[in-house]
Amino acid sequence: MDDLNKPFLITKSLYPENQETPIKFLPHHLIPTNYHFKRNHFNYPKILTQNFLLPISGEVVKSVTFYFNQIINFPATTFTGLLECAGNNRSKFDPKTFGEQWEEGAISQGRWRGVSLSKLLSQTGLTTDAKEVLFEGYDFGKREDSDNYVPFARSLPLKIALHPDTIIAYEYNDKLLSIKHGFPLRLIVPGWYGMASVKWLKKITVINYPFTGPFQAIDYVYYPKDIEPFPVTTTNVNSIIQYPLNYSILDAGNHTIEGIAWSGEGDITTVEISFDGLHWSNAVLLKNTTEPYTWTKWKYQWNALEGEYTIFCRATDSKGRRQPMNAFWNKKGYGYNATPKAHVKIT
Amino acid sequence: MDDLNKPFLITKSLYPENQETPIKFLPHHLIPTNYHFKRNHFNYPKILTQNFLLPISGEVVKSVTFYFNQIINFPATTFTGLLECAGNNRSKFDPKTFGEQWEEGAISQGRWRGVSLSKLLSQTGLTTDAKEVLFEGYDFGKREDSDNYVPFARSLPLKIALHPDTIIAYEYNDKLLSIKHGFPLRLIVPGWYGMASVKWLKKITVINYPFTGPFQAIDYVYYPKDIEPFPVTTTNVNSIIQYPLNYSILDAGNHTIEGIAWSGEGDITTVEISFDGLHWSNAVLLKNTTEPYTWTKWKYQWNALEGEYTIFCRATDSKGRRQPMNAFWNKKGYGYNATPKAHVKIT
């Protein structure tokens, strides 16, 4: 057969290539590379010899340029972690917002392996003026709001940059990163939305001022209606219903409602199901307490009688954050995490 | 690279396998088989020796069972034709309707090759009681509304069945049909919504009564709000905007708005563009007058100034049918053809 019985990535735009994971149809704990969502700002960079060098300079005691094989020879840090695009579910905001119209698939999860950035910074040292760490990728191009070429670049506060699980990654699911996902080196910042995990790392600069590049101070900023703008950082508590599908028609009888829930801060403590948005019952969590950066699978047994239903689902994390019924609207459409719904008819 | 820079089919459900064509991203006049949308009611049938026989019986002078290689040795009829699923764009109905939530990609087009059904029927003859021709596929299963196993089966009025371009097809784009698209033999009824083009043909029966199987008299029937139900037959006049994408952000300057338009009855005579839904200007049609069953590409040059815009597009066919501003709502969500819109921001 020329094509197997399987889902594929869902294209949202070709140039740059933005494709979402068919997340409703994937039971995997580790999403294979070819199902990992792609979110690009520019065309893919060409991989040249120089890409295998990683200079660290700026507010350091000693600038160091690391070679790729030095980096892979440091003791490694490995964890399974999810990445969610800050614009995931943007298409669901009401009023609608401009930008890539992601549905629920701008999220994936896999095993990342790399070296703690803190290990590299312990080789360079930091001056007392060090405030942020700036990451620049090899990807660059023109934005709609300017005629200048700019690279994709983002900074992290020193505290986050020095966290032992902030890594310079070189493997995904036990293979070298694929070219489309940041080969040879990318940053991984677990718990933060995906924009923080800069791909195709070109250089790292420790800086003594707040970085204000366009992907830091124009994009990836929440612009709410009535309050001051503030930056997009950690992943909101969120969930999806993988079964049943929205507007599906099902036989009466037993069905297992199921899905996943996640948070960039703390663990998922409860997932609740409701059929009216008012009364809630706990779903069963299939927790994996040794993997703090992964999503939690959940299930709910339902004996469905004939009729039409709306299934609601909401997750709560150990920081007490709970999914709202209505999304927190902001002009650029980031951080959508309203309770998902599935409308079904039972016949 | 493990995956090329390309779109893929978009999965709507896995069992049965329903996937739509990434039509916004395909410039092809002939959609390759692996990009043709899949719409199944049941699991794929197994292909066995018996599938290579096609019996025609019922209200005929002489029942005949045709062998596959008899069928391919008749003089062939070849044309390029589109198939659109009757549920295409169902997700856009308001109020929403149950069923597969197709967006705009349940449409494809390619070159079909087969034998005119009328040639086969001229071998069997017809009795004077012949009223309809019934087509049964090898695909079968349980529906949500019954515990019985039923095959996918549909009938055609004699007049349509005898049209010279109603064919028993065995090739798509100059290759044998793929297993997922009806191999070895399927019906193609140009101008009609896709449900008429029964796949994996098992048998043909000429009948003297109106067929009332569930895919004829329960599904594929328009159930409007205030008027009597009536059957789904020919494809409505319709169009899509392929560029620009909805809610995209573009540079000021020249842009070519483009897309395709089609009708199951007659030719596309005009495609009009509007920026307010009131004032309309003609797009340029790239007509292909020798291919009556294909879509028509259209283009419109736009010098875009800064601001936010809604682009409307509407097609008219040579029968005088024109796309409405609002869809004709019906309970099962068939035949959606409201004017498409693309909201864009120019910066």
From TrEMBL, chains A, B:
Keywords, sorted A to Z: Metal-binding, Molybdenum, Oxidoreductase
Ranges of residues in domain Moybdenum cofactor oxidoreductase dimerisation: 234-338
UniProt GO MF annotations: heme binding; molybdenum ion binding; molybdopterin cofactor binding; sulfite oxidase activity
Any Pfam family matching the protein: Mo-co_dimer
Top-level taxonomic group: Bacteria
Keyword Oxidoreductase: yes
GO biological process: sulfur compound metabolic process
The keyword Protein biosynthesis belongs to this UniProt entry's keyword annotation: no
Required cofactor(s): Mo-molybdopterin
Residue span, Oxidoreductase molybdopterin-binding domain: 41-213
Record PANTHER family: SULFITE OXIDASE, MITOCHONDRIAL, SULFITE REDUCTASE
Protein name, as recorded: Sulfite oxidase
